[in-house]
Amino acid sequence: MNILLAEDDERLGELIAYMLKKKGGYKVDWVMEGDEACFYATSAHYDVLIMDWMMPNGTGVEVCRRLRKEGYSGAILMLTAKDSVQDRINGLDSGADDYLVKPFEIDELLARLRALSRRNYAPIVEDQVQIGDLILNRQSHMVRSGNHEMSLSPREFQLLDLFVQNKGQVLPREVILERIWGLDADVTLKTIDATVKLIRKKLGKLGKSSVLQSVRGVGYKFEN
């Protein structure tokens, strides 16, 4: 299960992420601010979002409302110390699917996650996506422009697909590393540069090497 944890309490967030990985065997991305939660949630697929109520730059309730307004259909579990009936109603009405009051036992959190994961929240992802005259086939990992076609490795395609999903937005190398390789991967930021170079080389054979633009000192963005 792929989990996004949004919790601004550093000690609690670290503990929850650790226990989810150790006891649940889940892959966990952890952010500490509301705007980060929005970015991550819309940049990759997560089975469940665990959202703290009180966060800087966007509360959990505000993030839920924003995501639902934008059409986000994934499962959201709200964490909060607020335990009045009206608070629970507000949390659920904002778009959360479940509600867990702090303090809680990690086993109960794991049980709630298992229950949420059994519901079918998986978004329908098109097999093909077209940006201008560039077509990406998610099944075959082929990229086509006009009558020309090029095959990418699974990792190359995953990275290109991430860029396409965030067209026009600068993706920092650190974010790319987390999204594609994961925080625990034994790779460096130079690996990202090398992979982008390989993708550009292949896209160059389609006359599209310029769609991946470098942003000096930050990362890359896709512009077609």
Structural notes for this entry:
With 224 residues, this protein is of the alpha/beta class. The protein is built from eight helices and twelve strands. The strands form three sheets. It has a five-stranded parallel beta sheet with strand order 2-1-3-4-5, sandwiched between helices. A four-stranded antiparallel beta sheet has the order 6-7-8-9, with helices on one face.
Number of strands: 12
Give, in order, the helices and strands: EHEHEHEHEHEEEEHEHHEE
Question: In one word, what is the shape?
Answer: elongated
Number of helices: 8
In whole angstroms, the N-to-C terminal distance is 33 Å
What share of the residues lie within helices? 40-55%
The mean pLDDT is 86
SSE-based structural type: alpha/beta
| Strand composition percent | 15-25%
The biggest beta sheet is recorded as: 5 strands, parallel
Q: Could you give the order of strands across the largest sheet?
A: 2-1-3-4-5
Taking all Cα atoms into account, the compactness measure Rg is 19 Å
Query: Which spans have pLDDT < 50 for at least 5 consecutive residues?
Result: none
Short description:
The chain is 42% helix and 23% strand. It has 224 residues and is of the alpha/beta class.
Q: What is the topology?
A:
Layout: E1 2-6, H1 10-24, E2 27-31, H2 34-43, E3 48-52, H3 60-69, E4 75-80, H4 85-93, E5 98-101, H5 106-118, E6 128-131, E7 134-137, E8 142-145, E9 148-151, H6 154-165, E10 171-172, H7 173-181, H8 189-204, E11 212-215, E12 219-222
Parallel strand pairs: 1-2, 1-3, 3-4, 4-5
Antiparallel strand pairs: 6-7, 7-8, 8-9, 10-12, 11-12
Helix pairs in contact: 2-3, 6-8
